[in-house]
Structure formats: C-alpha cells, structure tokens
Amino acid sequence: MLAFLRKSVTSWVGILILGLALGALVFTLFQPTGPGGTAAGGGQLLATVGKEQITEQDYTRLLDRAVAREREANPRITNPDFIAAGGGELVLQQLIASKALASYGDANGLIVSRRMIDGEIASIPAMQLNGKFDEGTYRRLLAEQRLSEAELRESIRSDLLRRQLLLPVSLGQIVPRGHAEPFAELLLEVRKGRILPVPSAAMADPGKPTDAQLKAFHAENARAYTIPERRGFRFAELDMKGLAEKARPEAAAVRKYYDENPQEFGGLETRLVNQIILRDAEKARAFVAAVRGGTSFAAAAAKEGFSAEDIALGTRTQSGLADETTDTLAKAVFALQPGAVTDPVESRLGFHVAEVARVIPASPQAFETVSAAITKKLQDEALLDLVADTVASAEDRLTGGESLADVAKDLGIEIRESPPLTADGRQFDADYAVTAVAQPLLPAVFAADAAEGPQVTEIEGNRYVIFEVTDVLQPTLVPLDKIREDVALAWEIKARSDAARAEAERIAQALGKGEALDRLVAGRNLPAPQPLTVRRLELTQMAQRGQQVPPPVLQLLTTPKGQARVLPAPGGQGWFVVMVDSIEPGTLSEAPQLAEAVRQSMLRDTSDEMVETFVRAIEREAGVVRRPDQLKAVNRRLTGETIGETID
Predict the structure, then answer these.
(1) Alpha helices, DSSP H only, in 273-351?
(2) Which of 289, 332, 361, 571 has a CA positioned 20 to 30 A from the CA of residue 297?
(3) Both 54 and 141 in a single domain?
(4) Residue 412 backbone dihedrals phi, psi, to 5 degrees
C-alpha cells in the first residue's frame, strides 16, 4: 500500500526534481479535475505557506490522483485505506513543499524564460504527433481538459524553478568508506531464534456475551459498524459509437487528403540534409570554400565546434525544410546534386550552409493501399473535435440552467439511476447486507458538490458522462439490534484474541527471565515453536526483489539476545512470540565488496536527506502554518468516521 505515494512524496529528489518533470506534470494536468477543471481552492483552509493558501479542494484533488495511481498496484485500495495508512499527511506535505519552493524561487530572482517553457511543452509526448510537437494536438488537449495555456505554462514554470533549486543541492555529497563499513558488517550479522504461534482458536471458549457487553463492544467499535457517506445519482453516457459514425469521412474527403499530402505517402522527393549555422558571413563563405575544396562537411563543421549530431538535420521535403529554415535555403538545397553544398543563406539566426547527403526519389504508395489508414486518421481527428464540441455544448447548456433530462433527450442518450453507494462502490440494504457495485463514475460523484447540479465528466476508456447527485446520505451507525449476531461473533473473536495475547505476553516475560520454553508451553495445546536462522543481508535482498518479509522474521532482527517479543498474527488469528537465542556478528572478510555497495546506497540517501533538509529550511523561511484540526475534519468526512443518526 502507498508504494507510489511513499516513493513520490517522501523522496524529495524524486517528487520535486524528477517526479515533477514533464511526464508526471502532464499526468497531473491532463486528468479529469472535477467540475470546470479549474485549480481554484475551496472548502476548509488546511495550511498557509506565506501568503499562499492550501484548501480542501487542493488537497482532495491531489489525494484522488494519488489514490488513483496507487490503485494501479492495489486495485482494492480506497480513500479511507489510503488516509489511514498516512497518505493524507504525505499529500498535504507535498503541497506545502511545492508552494514553498515556488515562492522561494520567485523571491530570489530565479528566471525561467519563455523559450525554456516552449521547449518543455514541445517535449511532452501527449502533445506530439509522429514524434514531433503538433500545434493542433496541443490546442485540442488544452480544450478537452478545460485548461488555459497560461495555467499550463505556470505549472511548467514552477517545475523548472524547483529543478533549478534542488538539483544542485542533491549533488556533490560524500560518504567515506569507513562510515559504511559498520553498516555492512551489520548486514552480515546472523541471528538464530524461535517463533511460537499462539492461536486465538486455542484459547478457552469465552461464553456468550451479556447484553451490556454487546452494547459496550458495539459502542467501542462504532467506526466498524458505521456506513460511510453514500450518494445516489443519475447519469447518461455519451454515445461514442454514434459520434464515431458521424465522424466517419466521406470518400471524397479521403481522396482529397491523399492528393494534398503526398509527402506522407512517399509521393515527394526527399533529401538527407546536413546544416551548419554560423554567425559571421565571412566564416560562412570560408566554410563553403573549404568544403568545395575537398574537406568533408563534417570535418569542416568539427573545426567550428559542431559535432555530427549538431549538423544532422535529417530527411526533409522541400516544403518541410522551408518551414524549418527559409524558403530560399530550401530551394537552394533541392537544386543541388548529392554531395554539393549551398552558398550561405542569411536568416535571423545567422548564415546557413547546407549539404545534400543523399537524394531519395519519390515513391508514392497507391491510394488503395493507404485509404483505410487515411479514413481512420481523419475519423479519429474528427471524433476528437466532435466529442469536444458535444461536451462543451452540454456544459454550456447545463450551466445555463437546462436539466440533465433536456440535454440527454436532445443527444438521444438514456438516463440511468444509481442507488446510494459508498465511495468504494458498496450498497447497503435495510438489513445491513452489502452488495459490491463496479461503478467507474464514483470518484467524480464523490468529488462533486451536490449543490452544483448536473455536470459532465470523463471516465476510464475515454468515455464522457453527464451526471447529477440526487441524494447524499451522511455516515450512519447501524443499530445493534440489526446486527446482533455479527457483533456477538466479533466480540467472541476479540475475547479469544485478548486471551491469546495475555498468554503470549506471559510466555515472553518468562522467557526473558530465563525460563525454558518447553516448560512454559507444556499442556497448553499450542503449536510447536519454529526454529529460524536469518542473515540481515538476505532479508534486505528479499525486500529489494519485492518479496514480503513476514513480520515475525523482521521482529527477530530488533529483539535483544535472550529476550522475547510479542506481535499480532495477520487477520486477528492470534499472536506470535519471537525469541532470539544467539547473535553472530558479521565480518567484512565474508563479503569485502559489500562495503562499497552500502556506501553507494548511503550516498543516495544522503543526497535525499540534504534536499529534504533544504526544503524544510525553505518552508521555515516562507512561514508554514498547518491547521491539523481542519485536516482531521476533512479526513473524517472522507473516511466516513463522522457518525450521523442511526437507521430506523
């Protein structure tokens, strides 16, 4: 649980240098962001960073995205699970650190030029077509996500500021070998011990609980018997198949595209071009003279400080080369024979000299061969526009006060109704029976303000749904009378577990005083203790491979020699008594190369710690004020911990 969040929030180098690079930035920006897609805050004020505010809306939006990412590895995780495991605190800390760093960069004159931002935008894969930045794709993505160009540019600017601040801090750390050697020896330590299971099932029958005991148990465990907030809603999904059919191009349009874009189908001659740009006209003329005098283009360029990669322009059509350079240069290049170079051609960048390395003659594909691919390309592009227009029109009409029924009728789509469900898709009947419902719309439903009325959202699979929240049922404690048998069973399980714990603690205390384990368990009807020998290094390697190390084995590493510790078994099945019989210290002679491996690991950790310390110092300078009570209230509402009236 929380694999993604713990890696990307607690590692400052990870989240604030690499994690906020453009790949992650696009994931964050190009996701459904709730009604209107704006970044404006709202709800409770959870923290302030100088003059900047972090609101409930900021927090819940990032929390939802973090849970969505975590759900890729753990599909069953819910918001309550995530928050209970500490995810909420980590999300808030990420927001605080991000705002503090951005503020510090601005205050200290760090500059991010428009050209730098342009370069980052052009490198975003989602905005590219055939490996190159595409203006149409860029504009369409912004429109689909209801994100302004200014908002995207500001997000990228903040990210580049953070990289300028933190990357230098993470470099240049030193860890001496002598500092790593004791830790390497610790990894080679060998421990021998025993693990004794104490099952709850082996304990005596606690008998039937009294009514007073059941009431007290029910009250003490109210959260376990509380139904979280539920929401009922109506929804209608856009007919993507119908829209796709409308977007299908006519045969004439397909043929027209083929005729007007011969460069895509081998219908134009192309040339493999090398190019150099020099600032001085005299140098450019001397360069041309050298090449025409027998010096290779690459060798002449190398004398000017240009590598082979610097001069390689690639394969271009005449029009494509004109778009990238100048029309004059393109005409000159396409008038040359292979191996020839142009005269210097001036532009605002300097003086261009180009070489034709190879001529690739036109070899057009037959229309019949590519017509299907053209049809799909045109249909896909038209569908994107049609969906965007349909969604925008629906949003405008809903904002103007029209009902879901009116819009759905005009679009010819069916309205369906969902019963009240929890955020993780559970439906409860009057007898507290639970039915699981797979409903991909639930995250949007629970992120919506019920008072806002119908709205449009995108769900998985590039589908769009118009929905409105019709009912909000607050968290509700189920009465004891409706679940008496379940509570009685839970009471019995708890009673047996308490008895097992008491027995395990009795044995552990006696073992710590030197008593023999065999005598302590005699006649107790307990399983036989399991002997165990472990080396720290082996367990570390298991964890690195993603293998889970059982908790009793981990406990063996932290228990002193001759002592015993107690820890719970999974699923409330009982308890373990873990005893350490002997400890054999490790020596580097067993694995002399281990010290260097440990030193490298510590070096990475040291860099992270330096960055984290730097961030903490910036937060203190900015003046961070957290509001833990407000955060607790928001988390209680998100997890259903707040208890309302009971069911009749």
Answers:
(1) 281-292, 297-303, 308-311, 318-324, 327-333
(2) 361
(3) yes
(4) 70, 35
Domains contained in the chain, number = 4
Structure tokens at 504: 């395990």
Q: DSSP letters along 458-525, please? A: EETTTEEEEEEEEEEEPPEEPPGGGSHHHHHHHHHHHHHHHHHHHHHHHHHHHHHTT--HHHHHTTS-
pLDDT 10s digits, 138-178: 877 777 665 677 778 877 887 888 788 888 877 767 778 88
With a pLDDT cut of 70, the percent of the chain lying above it is 91
| Residue 29 pLDDT grade (very low, low, confident, very high; cuts 50, 70, 90) | very low
CATH code where residue 356 lies: 3.10.50.40
Burial of 402 (0-12, 13-18, 19+ CB in 10 A): middle
Residue length, the chain?
A: 648
Helices (H), 171-210: 177-187
Quote the pLDDT of residue 216: 95
Domain holding 556, by residue range, is 189-226+482-585
Please name every residue paired with 356 in a beta bridge, in sequence order, or none if there are none: 273
Q: Considering the entire predicted model, what is its pTM?
A: 0.52
Q: Do residues 312 and 422 share a domain? A: no
Q: Which tokens sit at 455?
A: 């709205």
Which residues, other chains included, contact 233 with Cβ-Cβ below 8 Å and sequence gap of 6+?
A: 417, 418, 441, 445, 467, 468, 469, 470, 471
**Over 70: is that where the pLDDT of 1 sits?**
no
And the tokens for 447? 């992120």
